[in-house]
Every structure is written in C-alpha cells, then in structure tokens.
C-alpha cells in the first residue's frame, strides 16, 4: 500500500487518520518514507504495510499504489505485484506503463475534493477509496477523522467525512465492491502504539528524567528535538537550540555535571563535530547521552537516506582512550527502553553513552507494543548527597580510586563537595597531575568501569536451531527484513538463527561466541560499504574465514527478497 | 559569610611570575566574597590556555573544559542549576578565535552568567603565536613578518551581538576589576568583561607600561552614561577599544532563564526525575 506524489503539491504524507484508524483496529503497521532533502519538488512517497501479525520490514512489492501524478505511476508501478491495483487521480488521465500487470482505478480525486470546497481534501478522498478497497468499516475511519478535525468544528468534520465517503463509493463502483484478495482478516484489536523511533526516544528521555536537551537541527534527528520542545516544558525542562553541535554536546556535559540528565541528538556530520566533547565527557567522567541517527555519509552524503556507516566513528571516535558505551536499539520499543537505560548507564558509570539508530528506525512509523514506564527504574549510581565535612583545604575525592573504578560523584552546590574537574590528567581530587604512576592508575580506573558491563539484552537472540546452516547477524532497523528472509529460506529447507547486536561497544563478544561457534556459516548484514559490524565481530570473536557480509549502501533499506537471494548465493 | 581567603585553595598556579592572570584570579576571589557568595555556590568554568587554568586556583566548583568551549559548558551548568553563580573564563584565543561562535551566541542568548576574558593579545600556552587580538604588524612565532590581519574588537562585537553588560579592565587595576566583577555577578543576564592581562613572557609589545600609557579610564568621565548604547559604541571607537570601566549595561532585558516557558526559580537539578502514570498516559495518547 503506497501513496505517491511530488512534494510540490504539498502531498507530503498520507493522512494520519488512515494509519490511526488501522492502528485502532489492531493491525500492525510499518511505514517507510521516501523523501529527498529538497523541501519542495522531487518525488516523495510514503509506504505503509499492514498486517495482522507483527511486521518490521518494508515489503518487496506493492498491492495498492495511490498516485497523485503520472510520474508516481511511471516511477513506481514496476513495484506492484502482478494483479496489483493503482488508484489514481482521474484529473491527469492516468495510464499504466507498458507491461505492467495491474488494474487501474481512476477516481476523480481532485474533482470530488474541489466540489466539496477545497483541493486540500484530496487526501481524504484517496484515503476513503483505499480504505473501501480493503473492505474495512468506515465508522472507525470516520472516528479518526473526527478526532483529527474536531477542533475545527463540525462543518469541517462533516466535509471530510463526506470526502471519505465519496472516494469510497466511487471506487467501489469501479471495482464492483471491496477487493477480495486484499480483504484484511480482523486484527487482534489489542491496543498498540503507532510512532517513529525518534518519538520513542524523546518519550524515553522524558521518562528517564532527562530535562535538558541541547541540539542543532539535522535530518534525521530533528524530530527528537521537536518532540521534546513540545513536551519538556510540561516537566520543567527545556530544549535549547545551540549554535552548533560542539555547543550542543558541551552544554549537555555542563548540565550533566551540574546534575540534570541532559542529552543531544544528531546525525553523522554533527557526531563528527562532537568528538572532542565525547572525550571530555569520558575524561571528566561526566554523564552524557548522545543519539546518532545515522544517514547516508560521508560528508553531507545522502542526508535523507538509510545507512549504518557511523559505527566506526562511534566506536573509535575521539582521541585518546576512554570508556564509552554504544547502544543500538533495534525496534521502536527498544528506542524507548534503551534511551532510559542510556541515561542510567551514563550516570552509573559516569561515561558518554551513544544511542545509535538509523534513518529507517528513526523515521519509519511503526506499530509498537504498549510501553511500560516503570519497567526500567531510574538509577543514578554513586551520586552523593550531604557529603560529610572535609578537613580544611581538603577537596572531595571526586576521582577516588575504587574497586570498580566508579567514584562517588557530588553536584555543585553541595556544601562539602568542592573538587576540580578537568580534561587534563588529574589526581583523585581533580587537580592536574603529570605523575606517571597516577596517570597509569587513572587510565586503568576509567577504563575498567565498563569491563564486562552489558545493557539488558546486549544481544537479542532468536536461535531455534542447535547447528543452523546460517547465523544471520544484524543491527538497528534490519531485523525484520532478516526474519522475513529467514522464513523464505526455511521454506527451502535452510535453517537459520538470528542475533541482533544491541550493544556495539564494548563489544559483547562472550555472549555472541556460542552462536558463532554453532553455525555452519555466518552472515552479517549491514547498510554500509565496508562491513563495519563484521569487522567488530572478527576483531573480538574471530571466525574471519566463516563470516560473509551482505552489504547495501545505495540509500535504501534491505528488501526481504534481496536478503533471501544473497543468502542463496553465498559461498 | 565567606571571606576572600576562603576562595583560595592550596594549588600553586603554574603561571609565570608577573603574569596578569594572578590579579584576575585575586579579583574574582575578592568580588565573590564582596557579593556574599559561598564557595559551594560558585562554579568557575574555564577553557584551555594559560588563563584557562584559573578554575583550578579558586576554591569553588571548578570545571576546566576544552579549548574554546567554556561558554557552552557554563551555560549548561547554569540551566541545570540556576541557583549557582556561574563564571566562565579563558583567554583571547579561547574566546575570540576557536570559541568565537559560542561567544556571540552566548551574548545574544543572555543567560545570567559572567564571562571574563584574560586578553593578552597572544597565545600564551602554546608559546607565543598570534591571536585574533594581536595588532596588525605584530610579530610572533606564527607571524614572523608581522601579522597581516587586523585585530578584532570584542567590545564592538559584544555590543552588536546584543550584550546587556559590557565592561573592560586592566589586571593591574585590581580595585576597578574587582568592582566590575561584582557588578557583573549582580547583573541579571550575560555579563562580559574583557581584561587586559599582560603575558610577560611572550608579548613584549603589549606590556604593563604600554597599557598604562594607552588606556582611557571611563571613571574619569563622570558624565559617561553606560545605558546609552550609541554612546557606548562611539566611545569604543573613539578610544580604539583602549578604554576601561563599565561601558554598557541594559538592566531592562530579561535573562534567558526568565524567558523559558515554565522554567522554575528552583534549580532544575533539585527537581524530581519521576513522572506520574497519568502524565505518562497523557504522553501516550497521541500515539494511539
Ligand atoms: C582543539 C584545540 N586546538 C588547539 C589547542 C592548543 N591550544 C591550547 S591553548 C591555545 C591558545 C591559547 O591562547 P589563549 O586562548 O589566548 O590563552 P592564553 O594561553 O593566552 O591565556 C591553543 C591553540 C587545543 N588545546 N585544542
Ligand atoms: S606564558 Fe604568558 S600568559 Fe602564560 S603564564 Fe606565562 S605570562 Fe602568563
Ligand atoms: Mg591569550
């Protein structure tokens, strides 16, 4: 199911009521937006996949294509499966390109909308038509419309409902009723959420107690900032749009030092600018949470396209050696829970934590199971309040050598907590020190903090087979595609296990090892050209001879068919 | 109430004997005591340079950051805990070269913090290269034939960036400098003080004597009105930036913290991190 058009006509998204209504009926949805970085002009499309079962991937082919211009048909009809359907605006006398096996329903979308008063309602007419073809009840749709437009008064609601109805009626007459082959089984009706990863991250941040976000706008991270701009003031917090990402990261460090959970979010170019700040956070042991929503690199690269090529920058970026955690959520639920955990880890271990997403996970709107805000309790680690009095001239040992390397932390304002913080090598009270012995001890102290530390589900395992033909390994948004490819492989008799790496650094080698050992062949999937995840596995676990990579870096997410085919062709 | 001695610690500064920065440190300590601060209520955030070491020499909460970034760190501290008095400080390279972007934006943002630049017209720590404050023709290690760039005027920049408090002083004039820092701390908004703080080791041109000869002290002009922005700009230009005293102050503009919607007077750092089930349900509503 897809709607397409050029950005010029303001056709930027398929009405939210369409998916809201499907979500309320309990269907699982998975969205994919194709857009270009031009604000106006350029072909855009918005795919939505509907299922009665959980889905986490875009599909190989389309069932229904909704087109508002001929270009959309020309560019996309080859993706239709044989016997698919095109619903197009009659206004441009739509035609199917040669060789496309599909049915075309030309609905006077613009004409109906204009008749009802405004071409803005084109969306409604088209949504009504598609809804009707799927044989879904109009009442649920109308309720979503009512909620969407209720504020604007009953007259507007009525007009929109009418637009939906006319679109539905018109298409049903052309098609002779709902299309049996597309008829959706009733869904489970269980309450789900429908959101993008960036919103789940913003929501997670609020639940984690984050109250300051400092950030500089960038695709595809900006929605996190936009979400928090709307919500944080309600919780006493604020978002500050800084002059650049260096200010964003260092401001978050300042806030973290002073005791507020703070974050910043960016994509590759911003991450590059933050490298020195990440080192400052590591050296001064100041909590910091950074979200990197990966997009096509290098440089400005493909700013609105899918890629997973910042892994090395996150793992290796910043000079010198610091402890640092890199977490890669692999679902919308993960985006929420991992963000909460990121804030806990940043404070418990007093380290920078990078939450790594990719464009498809950050922006693809998807179904999400109900979220539980109490599942991950807030933990602040060794935060000291009301520290006991110090001797005259004595400073608080903010960097005290301890068993686990984590030192007690006091916040400015604390009566007996005075100490110094510096990115220069320092002693236990934070005073600069070049003493060789102290240097070595301090390095060891910092670096041991994350030894053996794992987040919840550092790897996610689906391993039904003891000795599978294939072990498929991925990260971020690719898990759903891998699972669909596995189903097809299973039909061919190929057995497979699936491990999603969710903690990228420190690398969870010992957790992964048994699965690597038991597989006949290991396949690592990633959206980059140099196999960065595979390199981590080889480095930390070995198995170089047995690892094969499936790589895609053309800016689009993997399709299940591509993964299936690549697996079949493996040597 | 703390005395200025309580703002001293036992760390011995590694500045060269005679460096102007000693007096800036003393002035901050005196001013802090004079306005009634306690050490635990003061955070001093500094950049990298000889001058940047200052946060380690004052008995307060000190944060020595990275080169050019004292201001964003300081603003983060202030946002997190507005009950703290926050002083950011660093060198002329720190604030007007690598950190210039932050300087102008911090000025226009107008958080209630004080920014003190130790301006020695040279890079001290890296042993004597040209700075954005070095005059054209100034010979340094990096400009052996003399600088072919003009020096920038931080005072003009501050005024045009919308500063609400602009002052300049000379590290030898401990009395004036202390008073200006007191005023800056009391000012509700961003206060910028540029301090001529001679580098006795690498700058053989802009010496103590040179400053004494060239400085115009505004204290000698009883009619000078620091609330008049146009007059302030004229005075800066007339004196070629070689003036000291309170140059401009706008007490009418609200500081950033007071303009943030719903921002409490109480420190954010002291507020609870938890949200209620009802608040959470409200947040979820839009995704159902
Ligand atoms: C990113 C970065 N670049 C360069 C340096 C090296 N560096 C340290 S201090 C400094 C300039 C110091 O000059 P200034 O800010 O005027 O301070 P001063 O030493 O004169 O007080 C430089 C270039 C650094 N620490 N970090
Ligand atoms: S080099 Fe110059 S600025 Fe640095 S401490 Fe010595 S005199 Fe001061
Ligand atoms: Mg200097």
TrEMBL record, chain A:
Residues 469-560 form the Pyruvate:ferredoxin oxidoreductase core domain. The keyword Lipoprotein does not apply. It holds the Pfam family POR_N. Residues 18-169 form the Pyruvate/ketoisovalerate oxidoreductase catalytic domain. CDD domains: TPP_PYR_PFOR_IOR-alpha_like. The keyword Metal-binding does not apply. InterPro entries: 2-oxoacid/accept_OxRdtase_asu, PFOR_II, Pyruvate:ferred/Flavod_OxRd, Pyrv/ketoisovalerate_OxRed_cat, Pyrv_Fd/Flavodoxin_OxRdtase_N, Pyrv_flavodox_OxRed_cen, THDP-binding, Transketo_C/PFOR_II. Keywords: Oxidoreductase, Pyruvate. Residues 204-444 form the Pyruvate flavodoxin/ferredoxin oxidoreductase pyrimidine binding domain. This is Pyruvate ferredoxin oxidoreductase subunit alpha. It comes from Paenibacillus cisolokensis.
Automatic annotation (TrEMBL), chain B:
SUPFAM superfamilies: Thiamin diphosphate-binding fold (THDP-binding) (SSF52518). Pfam families: PFO_beta_C, TPP_enzyme_C. Gene3D superfamilies: 3.40.50.970. Residues 48-195 form the Thiamine pyrophosphate enzyme TPP-binding domain. Residues 199-263 form the Pyruvate ferredoxin oxidoreductase beta subunit C-terminal domain. Transmembrane segments: none annotated. Its cofactor is [4Fe-4S] cluster; Mg(2+); thiamine diphosphate. Keywords: Iron, Iron-sulfur, Magnesium, Metal-binding, Oxidoreductase, Thiamine pyrophosphate. NCBIfam families: PorB_KorB. This is 2-oxoglutarate ferredoxin oxidoreductase subunit beta. It comes from Paenibacillus cisolokensis.
């Amino acid at each position: 199911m897809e709607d397409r058009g050029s950005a010029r006509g303001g056709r930027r998204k398929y009405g939210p009521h369409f998916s809201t209504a499907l979500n309320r009926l309990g269907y699982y949805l998975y969205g994919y937006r194709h857009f270009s970085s031009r604000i106006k002009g350029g072909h855009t499309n918005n795919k939505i996949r509907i299922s009665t079962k959980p889905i986490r991937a875009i599909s190989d082919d389309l069932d229904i294509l909704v087109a508002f211009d001929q270009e959309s048909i020309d560019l996309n009809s080859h993706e239709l499966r044989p016997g698919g359907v095109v619903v197009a605006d009659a206004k441009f006398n739509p035609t199917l390109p040669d060789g496309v096996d599909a049915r075309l329903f030309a609905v006077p979308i613009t004409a109906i909308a204009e008749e009802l008063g405004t071409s803005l309602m084109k969306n409604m007419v088209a949504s009504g038509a598609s809804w009707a073809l799927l044989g879904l009840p109009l009442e649920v749709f109308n309720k979503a419309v009512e909620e969407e437009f209720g504020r604007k008064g009953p007259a507007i609601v009525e007009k929109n409902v009418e637009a939906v109805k006319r679109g539905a009626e018109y298409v049903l007459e052309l098609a002779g009723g709902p299309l049996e082959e597309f008829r959706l089984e009733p869904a489970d009706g269980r309450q789900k959420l429908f959101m993008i990863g960036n919103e789940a991250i913003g929501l997670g941040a609020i639940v984690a107690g984050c109250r300051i976000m400092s950030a500089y706008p960038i695709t595809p991270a900006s929605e996190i900032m936009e979400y928090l701009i709307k919500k944080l003031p309600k919780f006493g917090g604020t978002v500050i749009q800084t002059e650049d990402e260096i200010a964003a990261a260092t401001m978050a460090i300042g806030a973290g030092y002073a005791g507020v959970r703070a974050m910043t979010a960016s994509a590759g170019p911003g991450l590059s600018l933050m490298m020195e700040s990440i080192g400052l956070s590591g050296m001064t042991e100041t909590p910091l949470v950074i979200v990197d929503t990966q997009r096509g690199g290098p440089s400005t690269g493909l700013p609105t396209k899918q890629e997973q090529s910042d892994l090395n920058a996150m793992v290796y970026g910043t000079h010198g050696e610091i402890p640092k955690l890199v977490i890669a959520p692999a679902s919308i639920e993960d985006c929420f829970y991992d963000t909460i955990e990121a804030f806990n880890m940043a404070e418990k271990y007093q380290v920078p934590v990078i939450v790594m997403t990719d464009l498809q996970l950050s922006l693809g709107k998807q179904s999400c199971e109900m979220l539980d805000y109490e599942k991950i309790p807030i933990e602040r680690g060794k935060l000291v309040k009301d520290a006991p009095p110090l001797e005259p001239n004595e400073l608080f040992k903010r960097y005290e050598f301890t068993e686990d390397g984590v030192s007690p932390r006091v916040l400015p304002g604390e009566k007996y907590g005075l100490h110094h913080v510096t990115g220069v090598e320092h002693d236990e009270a934070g005073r600069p020190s070049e003493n060789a012995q102290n240097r070595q001890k301090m390095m060891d102290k910092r670096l041991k903090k994350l030894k053996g530390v794992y987040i919840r589900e550092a790897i996610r395992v689906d391993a039904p087979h003891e000795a599978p033909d294939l072990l498929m390994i991925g990260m971020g948004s690719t898990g759903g595609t891998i699972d669909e490819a596995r189903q097809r492989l299973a039909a061919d008799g190929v057995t497979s296990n699936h491990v999603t790496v969710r903690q990228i650094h420190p690398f969870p080698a010992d957790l992964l090892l048994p699965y690597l050992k038991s597989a006949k062949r290991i396949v690592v999937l990633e959206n980059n050209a140099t196999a960065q995840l595979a390199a981590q596995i080889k480095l930390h676990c070995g198995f170089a001879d047995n690892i094969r990579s499936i790589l895609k870096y053309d800016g689009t997410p993997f399709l299940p068919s591509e993964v299936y085919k690549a697996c079949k062709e493996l040597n | 109430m703390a005395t200025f001695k309580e703002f001293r610690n036992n760390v011995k500064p590694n500045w060269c004997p005679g460096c102007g920065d000693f007096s800036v440190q003393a002035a901050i300590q005196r001013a802090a005591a004079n306005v009634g601060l306690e050490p635990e209520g003061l955070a001093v955030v500094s950049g990298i340079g000889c001058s940047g070491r200052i946060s380690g020499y004052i008995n307060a909460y000190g944060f020595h950051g990275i080169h050019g970034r004292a201001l964003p760190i300081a603003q983060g501290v202030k946002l997190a805990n507005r009950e703290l008095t926050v002083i950011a400080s660093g060198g002329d390279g720190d604030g007007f070269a690598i950190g210039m972007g932050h300087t102008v934006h911090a000025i226009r943002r107008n958080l209630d913090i004080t920014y003190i630049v130790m301006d020695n017209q040279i890079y001290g720590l890296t042993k004597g290269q040209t700075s954005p404050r070095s005059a054209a023709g100034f010979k340094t290690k990096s400009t052996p034939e003399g600088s072919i760039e003009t020096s920038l005027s931080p005072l003009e920049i501050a005024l045009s960036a919308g500063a609400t408090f602009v002052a300049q002083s000379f590290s030898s004039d401990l009395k004036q400098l202390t008073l200006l820092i007191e005023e800056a701390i009391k000012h509700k908004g961003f206060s910028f003080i540029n301090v001529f703080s001679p580098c006795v080791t690498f700058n053989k041109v802009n010496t103590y004597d040179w400053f004494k000869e060239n400085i115009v002290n505004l204290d000698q002009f009883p009619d000078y009105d620091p609330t008049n922005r146009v007059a302030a700009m004229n005075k800066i230009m007339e004196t070629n930036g070689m003036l000291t005293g309170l140059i401009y102050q706008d007490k009418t503009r609200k500081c950033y913290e007071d303009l943030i919607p719903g921002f409490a007077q109480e420190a954010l750092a002291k507020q609870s991190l938890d949200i209620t089930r009802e608040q959470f349900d409200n947040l979820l509503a839009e995704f159902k």
